[in-house]
Amino acid sequence: MKTKLYIVALFILSITIGSCGSDDKKNEVDNSPAVAVKVSTVSEGNGSPFLSVSGKIEAVNSANISTRMMGYVDKIYVQVGDKVKKGQQLISINNADISAKLAQVNAGITEATAAFNNAEKDYKRYTALFSENSASQKELDDITANYNMAKARLEGAKQMKNEVNAQFSYSNIRAPFNGVVTNKFIKVGDMANPGMPLVEVESPGNFQVLAMVPESEILQIKSGSEVDVLIKTLNESIKGTVAEVSTSAKNTGGQYMVKVMLKESTSNLLSGMYATVQFPTAKKANTNRVLIPLEAVVQNGQLSGVYTVSESKTALLRWLRLGRTYGDNVEVLSGLSAEEDYIISAEGKLYNGAKISIQ
Hints:
By secondary structure, this protein is an alpha+beta fold. It folds into three domains: 35-48 and 286-358, conserved putative lor/sdh protein from methanococcus maripaludis s2 fold, CATH 2.40.420; 52-60 and 203-280, Efflux pump adaptor protein, beta barrel domain (Elongation Factor Tu (Ef-tu), domain 3), CATH 2.40.30.170; 67-174, Helix Hairpins. The protein has helices spanning 2-30, 96-131, 137-171, and strands at residues 35-41, 44-45, 50-65, 71-76, 83-84, 89-93, 172-174, 179-184, 191-192, 199-214, 226-231, 236-245, 255-262, 274-280, 289-293, 298-300, 303-309, 315-326, 329-334, 341-346, 356-358. A hairpin with a 2-residue loop joins β18 (315-326) and β19. α2 (96-131) runs antiparallel to α3.
């Protein structure tokens, strides 16, 4: 009898301890602080009347300068960032073989000149003799042919010298226009090959943006249209005009090249900066879109999501499939529907199941 009473007492004690522990856990969960958040409701709309695409800024006058001859680089006269004037020498390439060829050409010109002078004298002499009936027609014809051949040889020697002088210009690389050296692709002692870029020069002040437009939107882009170009690095918006619209995407994977000329520029604008071009496009019928602010999107690797509000007032992360970007908003293709609440910002760290307090 005592043994049975002892077992019952232990059972009651264990239940009491378990219930106390469970109460402690419940109290611990209930006492966790709520994260203050701001919530917005998804609404359907036609979205922005702009098509936003990314592009890169580059100078209108830009050139990768190369040579048409092979040789070792003897000297580089400029550094990256140097201002240059049109015709200023930038690089010299070893031209010892051209110098030797020029000496041969000069010797050939001297020989051809002497032969021509002699042939010219004979031609004049025999012309006078023929007019006095002291020379035959055959003799005059031979002398005339010899004179013409000597004249042609001299002209050929002179043209060969022009060719050599042109090769000298290929060994002395000069600036094609006033500008700034933006890059060097070679150093002293390297071998320069025909067509190989040596230096890059661009003329600052006039800039353009090269943007890639998808196939589904290219027909809406018209040459001469006014656009807005957003420079994220400078946090500025610049007006531009569509100058060229490519009609082929053969080599660009379904993306069409569009060139936008900037109407104005700032001193801080540099080639290579990324920009967002906003093309005004007509709204299509029955194209209601679900849009949410970019600042509300949560990134985890290549996954994109947004925190929503559950029925128990906790944060619930929901993964999304996103579409195009319209300014500061992004299109939600799936994962979120109209009239649902989502969290725009929070005053603390959010996670799945976090208690929230809507402000």
